Amino acid sequence: MVLDGLTQSHFYRYFSVFRHLRNRYSARWTLAPSSGDPLTSDLLSAEVTVCDRAAETRVELPAAMRWHPVIRRFGLSTTGLTNFLLTQQEMIKQKYPVKGGQGCEGFMCTESDGGVTDSSPLFGLDCEMCLTCAGLEVTRVALVDSSGRCVLDELVKPPNPIIDYCTRFSGITRALLEPVSTRLADVQSRLLQLLPPDAVLVGHSLDGDLRALHLVHPHVVDTSLLYRQEFGRRFKLRHLAQVVLKREIQSEVRIGHDPCEDALAALHLAQYFIRKGPRKVVEDHLEDLWDLECPEDDDSDHVISSKRHSSPLRFGHALSRSGQSAVFLGGSVETSGSLSNQQCRRHRCSSDREVVCVYRRVVQSYTLSVLQFSSFRNTLNQTAAMETHLQQVCERLQQMCVLYVGPLPSDATETLVHRLLKRCGHLRTVRLLHYTHEVHAEVVFVHLEGAQLALEHLNGLQINGCIIKARRPVHELCLDLDERLSERQNDPLNTRLIYVSNLSSKPHRHEDQLQTFRQFGAIQCVTSAAEHAGKRGRHAFIRFECADSAQAAVGVDLQIGNRKLSVCHALTPPHMTSWTRPVTTETSPDTSEQGEECDERLLERQMKKLDARVGKVFRALEENCLSVVILPGHRSDGVDHPGLCFIHIKQST
User: What was the pLDDT predicted at 595?
Assistant: First the structure.
């Protein structure tokens, strides 16, 4: 998912509304802003490396065969009936009725003993339905055995009034059903009598027939999934019979389908597939059924051999060559001019809501889905220029690191203030305020933790008769600062992380002081808060292996020699070297406060909607799916606003 127009600053400015992003995703990384090309274009055109084993070996099959959906599912040499049965997971995915499944309450279960072998009998099944006030209900059932003999062909009277007989397809008429007294329970009993314990049911999209019969059977061969296509598409039974069996069924000159004929066609298609094997079926019908060419020399293949090097392999091409399907959903489909529709299906959506709706419909049909949410950028274009907006966001974040300290002695200097506060954390700027009744200082810390520790430890400190007090700015942007800091403290990324200040800058003492914290538990890593500047930091972030150790370390006063260490919960996420970049405040004289406030409320609602849509997509993901959310960042006039990348593998809880 790409949240177009968002930066890292947006996430932390509106941290409270990003409930799904901050709680569902276990990894978070700062992302360099995109170079200007569409991020999805960079993704699909990125060069990938071919592994050594693939470089040394070249499969003799052409790509059209090697990556065919039938070959990918069943392999080249698969044989035997049992290897073509739907698995339990596939049945659930394809909405088959299963024992204990949702919507299967009251369904009849066949007396299957689970002992299916390659010699188990096949039974073709097909039903015809009519539309009643309760939906589609079965009105005719046909069952054929392995020899092709029709052992059941029964009309069924549904319990609910019929609205539409669907005669064109079902062949059922009012006159035909009038004398019928057979009910669904009668047909269920007959099926249970006819099917042996190791029976395998065969049908074309058999899930609908079994649901109409209110029947659960665990051993199924579905011909629509045997002769499979890309992207979840399915061949019609009539087309399969015509191409593979050279047989005409469902003739237009006859009114309605014959379920015995359809059941027999499905049975013969399954028997043909099992007898020939997937490789032979694909080879024989690659052109007439799947409409694909199979050239003798596939020079376009990107897989390289030890004697021949090909052009660089791009990610989009690699997906296509490996038979993996990709789809792009969003307002702009210009993902990459070099990628064909075969390599990445594209679907233009008019809104973020449509992106989510389409994705939930097609989620099971693609290996890679790229979702672009553009509503925020569109909203921003209607409210303010991007640079002005980002400037405001950074100012709001920087306010969290600002303190006013005073009163100070009349002869106080910036050096004095720096010496007074450096034990709490790195300072970005110090500015003396002489126009107040007494001298004060405006201090901007690099990290949130420095400002927090200064608040806790400076109040009441006396310098030359002046009792120092540290306070937050009295400003509308800081009214909810305590709540926002509490959210930062409870960030899942920070639960095992603490911030330590006033460490010694001498290497041997620095290590001894850090060693002291091992009494609270095993330490995973230590990051100096000034390592990015190439210095030995007086402040560090310590990550423990468990959250209890971090909690214990925060609750203890530590003094080593004459140096007292200050400890607090980490507030800055580990992927950031500082809370914000330096900001220069430039206020436009023609911007009204009322307009800014209105825009702020609008943008906050937009962030909340985006987060809700991320949550909906996440819930639709299958188990073990890798989910990546990207806030692309922004680059303009040499100024970088970093993006953010969230990563998580969805697992059952």
Answer: 42
